[in-house]
Design goal:
Strand content: 35-45%
Radius of gyration: 13 Å
Number of strands: 7
Number of helices: 0
Distance between the termini: 21 Å
Largest sheet: 4 strands, antiparallel
CATH superfamily: Immunoglobulins
Length: 98
Protein backbone atom coordinates (compact mmCIF):
# COMPACT_ATOMS: atom_id res chain seq x y z
CA UNK A 1 0.00 0.00 0.00
CA UNK A 2 1.29 3.49 -0.73
CA UNK A 3 2.09 6.00 1.96
CA UNK A 4 -0.90 8.13 2.93
CA UNK A 5 -1.24 11.89 3.19
CA UNK A 6 1.96 13.01 1.48
CA UNK A 7 2.67 16.71 1.87
CA UNK A 8 5.42 19.33 1.81
CA UNK A 9 5.93 22.05 4.40
CA UNK A 10 8.90 24.28 3.73
CA UNK A 11 11.71 21.86 2.89
CA UNK A 12 10.26 18.81 4.68
CA UNK A 13 8.31 16.06 2.94
CA UNK A 14 5.98 14.20 5.31
CA UNK A 15 3.64 11.23 4.94
CA UNK A 16 1.58 8.85 7.04
CA UNK A 17 2.21 5.13 7.24
CA UNK A 18 -0.26 3.15 5.12
CA UNK A 19 -3.27 1.77 6.91
CA UNK A 20 -5.14 -1.45 6.38
CA UNK A 21 -8.07 -1.34 3.95
CA UNK A 22 -10.90 -3.85 3.55
CA UNK A 23 -9.55 -6.97 1.87
CA UNK A 24 -5.99 -5.68 1.84
CA UNK A 25 -3.26 -6.88 4.17
CA UNK A 26 -0.50 -4.45 4.96
CA UNK A 27 2.95 -6.07 5.04
CA UNK A 28 5.48 -4.61 7.45
CA UNK A 29 7.05 -1.53 5.92
CA UNK A 30 10.82 -1.88 5.74
CA UNK A 31 11.46 1.64 4.42
CA UNK A 32 10.13 4.41 2.19
CA UNK A 33 11.51 5.77 -1.08
CA UNK A 34 11.31 9.44 -2.02
CA UNK A 35 11.33 10.64 -5.60
CA UNK A 36 11.93 14.25 -6.70
CA UNK A 37 11.39 16.17 -9.94
CA UNK A 38 12.29 19.79 -10.52
CA UNK A 39 10.06 21.44 -13.11
CA UNK A 40 11.47 24.07 -15.46
CA UNK A 41 8.27 26.12 -15.19
CA UNK A 42 7.55 25.48 -11.54
CA UNK A 43 4.01 24.40 -12.37
CA UNK A 44 2.43 21.68 -10.24
CA UNK A 45 2.46 18.27 -11.91
CA UNK A 46 -0.92 16.81 -12.81
CA UNK A 47 -2.38 14.10 -10.58
CA UNK A 48 -1.40 10.68 -11.86
CA UNK A 49 2.07 11.78 -13.00
CA UNK A 50 4.56 9.10 -12.02
CA UNK A 51 8.26 9.52 -11.31
CA UNK A 52 11.12 8.07 -13.30
CA UNK A 53 13.53 5.62 -11.71
CA UNK A 54 16.26 8.23 -12.14
CA UNK A 55 14.23 10.57 -9.89
CA UNK A 56 14.56 8.24 -6.87
CA UNK A 57 16.67 10.29 -4.49
CA UNK A 58 16.37 8.89 -1.00
CA UNK A 59 15.40 5.81 1.02
CA UNK A 60 14.64 6.04 4.73
CA UNK A 61 16.55 3.82 7.12
CA UNK A 62 13.38 2.26 8.50
CA UNK A 63 9.63 1.92 8.25
CA UNK A 64 8.87 4.21 11.18
CA UNK A 65 10.46 7.28 9.60
CA UNK A 66 7.72 9.40 7.99
CA UNK A 67 9.51 12.60 7.02
CA UNK A 68 12.53 13.74 5.10
CA UNK A 69 14.14 17.17 4.73
CA UNK A 70 15.38 18.14 1.27
CA UNK A 71 18.32 20.53 1.32
CA UNK A 72 17.90 21.06 -2.45
CA UNK A 73 14.21 22.03 -2.29
CA UNK A 74 12.99 24.89 -4.48
CA UNK A 75 9.50 26.15 -5.31
CA UNK A 76 9.78 24.15 -8.57
CA UNK A 77 10.15 20.77 -6.81
CA UNK A 78 7.56 17.97 -6.70
CA UNK A 79 7.79 14.76 -4.65
CA UNK A 80 6.42 11.21 -4.55
CA UNK A 81 6.70 8.61 -1.80
CA UNK A 82 6.43 4.82 -1.97
CA UNK A 83 6.51 2.21 0.75
CA UNK A 84 8.71 -0.87 0.44
CA UNK A 85 8.04 -4.05 2.39
CA UNK A 86 10.48 -6.56 3.82
CA UNK A 87 10.39 -8.55 0.54
CA UNK A 88 11.44 -5.40 -1.39
CA UNK A 89 8.00 -5.03 -3.03
CA UNK A 90 7.35 -1.36 -3.75
CA UNK A 91 3.90 0.20 -3.55
CA UNK A 92 2.32 2.47 -6.12
CA UNK A 93 3.37 6.10 -5.72
CA UNK A 94 1.68 8.63 -3.50
CA UNK A 95 1.87 12.11 -4.97
CA UNK A 96 2.98 14.21 -6.69
CA UNK A 97 2.96 17.00 -4.12
CA UNK A 98 4.63 20.35 -4.43
Amino acid sequence: MPADGVGVSGTTVTWAAPTSAAGCDVSPIAFYRIYRRVSETGAALPAGTVPLLSERIFATSGGRITQWTDSAHTNKTSYWVTSVDDLNAESIVAGPVK
